[in-house]
Specification:
CATH topology of the largest domain: Growth Hormone, Chain: A
Membrane topology: Multi-pass membrane protein
Shape: globular
CATH class of the largest domain: Mainly Alpha
CATH superfamily of the largest domain: MFS general substrate transporter like domains
Structural class: mainly alpha
Pfam family, one: MFS_1
Order of helices and strands: HHHHHHHHHHHHHHHHHHHH
Radius of gyration: 23 Å
Strand content: under 5%
Helix content: over 70%
InterPro entries: EmrB-like, MFS, MFS_dom, MFS_trans_sf
Main location: membrane
Largest sheet: none
Keywords: Cell membrane, Membrane, Transmembrane, Transmembrane helix, Transport
Number of strands: 0
Length: 524
């Protein structure tokens, strides 16, 4: 990477600049998951149901994904510090509105605005770090940033659980305000601006429109499928959105291949090394990060831990990021990153295999812990390294877009993993119930009603029905509960097998597509 992109900065200021960017990234990614643990409290405060509250989560996920590439391009064109800073301020203001929200409509809109800020911070942070550091320090700094990314994604249950239990659900938004203000001051003071590479270029409005609408349609279709697993993929309410998404993305590619100053250079996808990197980012999102959703449900709904207790135990995974981030960044300057990434993903595959073997009606934290340690190790090594690898050989004016692409594929991996694994889990859960519910010995009318209720509740909430006070007092309770737990275990086994396959594909992609070093620039 050309040294011209590096602006001389006092050493102390460099690390303070990294701290500012890390604070922004941590807030932006934490807010993807932290709201999960607050939903039960919100149900009571807003006097609504979980279905209506689902858009508090979906609004952020949807707008965040749609905004990533657009914010990346604006940063490349007009200065990454300016766009990062504006995104940080927008995020803080939206967090304030969310904390004060008195209705779901206000909260949903606020979450969408907050997501634009989160996308701007996360899409430009890597490029800003790369331009504020040089040499071996760049690898260490990107490693630290990667550890923050890995830790923030897995820390939602812990931080959210603590805040909600002690201060109520608004605190998960208000906590961003003081942290954000400090980050704004530090960004203004210590972060160096990058050149405005495209300030005289024409904005590719068609590219932005097609990319935004295409990603929106794809992810919206997947979100609808997640909420209605029994609807067919060919249902116009699902398939229509997904087909429209593919058409719009095809139009985006067609547009980018013909305009003189495209929003995104298609040359990115001609570089095997970069393609391997985004494969790994996708695999990491679809396996490790999406699995956190299912692991949290297992620990809270079936093992019986509170949100805070679950979060503490999940430090087994997220804690590795804090320890290994700087180390992996340093080791990446001395050894083959591709081999480190491929081997580390294999460790994660072994972790999923260990947890698959441990699954059963009496599974507890101690049974899951060895596997959790392994996937935590994988996250701690791979998440920092793909940041460094993703920036290798990328021309200075394209760094923001490269960062945005890594983020968008990681986010797509999470969405597709949650939806795809969730459908696999639901199918196995329902198949077991269909073939075993009659063994409980309940009257046929009662069996039909409870069976329908369990199917409608799905694997995440079936436990609540089976352990309800009314059913617990019946003579059939113990057998029914046994059937529900076995059904859930079958579903979790399917999730673990799917995650195992995805992470193995990621390891293979790293080994085949990545090079030991990449020196070929991706030109505009």
């Amino acid at each position: 990477m050309p040294n011209a992109t590096m602006i001389t900065t006092p050493k102390r200021h460099q690390w303070l600049a990294l701290t500012a960017m890390s604070m922004g990234v941590f807030m932006g990614l934490l807010d993807v998951t932290v709201v999960n643990v607050a939903l039960p409290t919100m149900v009571n405060d807003f006097n609504t149901n979980f279905t209506n509250l689902q858009w508090v989560l979906n609004a952020y996920t949807l707008v965040y994904a749609v905004s990533l590439l657009i914010m990346s391009k604006l940063g490349d064109m007009y200065g990454r510090k300016k766009v990062f800073l504006g995104s940080l301020i927008l995020f803080v203001l939206a967090s304030t509105v969310n904390g004060m929200a008195s209705s779901l409509i206000v909260l949903d809109i606020g979450r969408g605005i907050q997501a634009i800020g989160g996308a701007g911070m996360n899409s430009l942070s890597m490029a800003l770090v790369a331009s504020n550091f040089s040499g071996n320090k760049r690898g260490v700094a990107l490693g630290i940033l990667g550890s923050v990314i890995g830790m923030s994604t897995a820390s939602g249950p812990l931080i959210g659980g603590f805040l909600v239990e002690n201060f109520g659900w608004p605190s998960i938004f208000y906590v961003n305000v003081p942290v954000g203000i400090v980050a704004v001051i530090m960004t203004l003071t210590f972060v160096n601006e990058t050149p405005s590479y495209g300030q005289h270029e024409r904005i590719d409005f068609a590219g932005m429109l097609f990319s935004g609408l295409g990603l929106f349609s794809l992810i919206y279709g997947l979100i609808i499928k997640e909420g209605h697993p029994h609807w067919s993929w060919m249902d116009i309410r699902i398939g229509g959105w997904i087909i429209a998404g593919f058409i719009l993305i095809a139009l985006f590619i067609w547009t980018e291949s013909r305009v003189q100053q495209p929003m995104m250079s298609l040359n990115f996808f001609k570089q095997c090394h970069f393609v391997g990197t985004i494969f790994v980012a996708f695999a990491l999102g679809a396996s490790l990060y999406s699995f956190n959703t299912f692991l949290t449900a297992l620990m809270q709904n079936y093992i019986g831990y509170s949100a805070l207790q679950t979060g503490v135990r999940q430090l087994t995974i997220s804690g590795w990021s804090l320890v290994l981030g700087p180390i992996s960044g340093y080791l990446g300057t001395r050894f083959s990153k591709k081999r480190m990434i491929s081997a580390s993903l294999l460790v994660g595959a072994c972790g999923f295999l260990v947890m698959l073997n441990a699954m059963g009606p009496r599974v507890g934290f101690m049974d899951l812990m060895p596997g959790m340690l392994m996937i935590g190790f994988t996250n701690g090594i791979v998440s920092p390294l793909i940041n460094t690898v993703g920036m290798e050989g990328v021309a200075p004016q394209q760094m923001g877009m490269a960062s945005g692409l890594l983020n968008i594929f990681r986010q797509l991996g999470i969405v597709i993993g949650v939806v795809g694994f969730g459908l696999m889990q639901a199918i196995q859960y329902e198949n077991y119930l269909n073939t075993h519910i009659h063994t409980v010995g309940m009257p046929s009318q009662m069996t039909t009603g409870i069976h329908a209720a369990l199917i409608k509740a799905g694997p995440f909430s079936g436990h609540t029905i089976a352990w309800s006070k009314r059913l617990t007092e019946t003579p059939f309770a113990q057998k029914l509960q046994s059937v529900v737990v076995h059904a859930y275990d079958n579903g979790m086994a399917a999730v673990l097998i799917a995650a195992l396959v995805v992470i193995l594909i990621g390891s293979l992609a790293a080994a085949v597509l990545m090079r030991k070093e990449s020196h070929a620039d991706v030109h505009a």
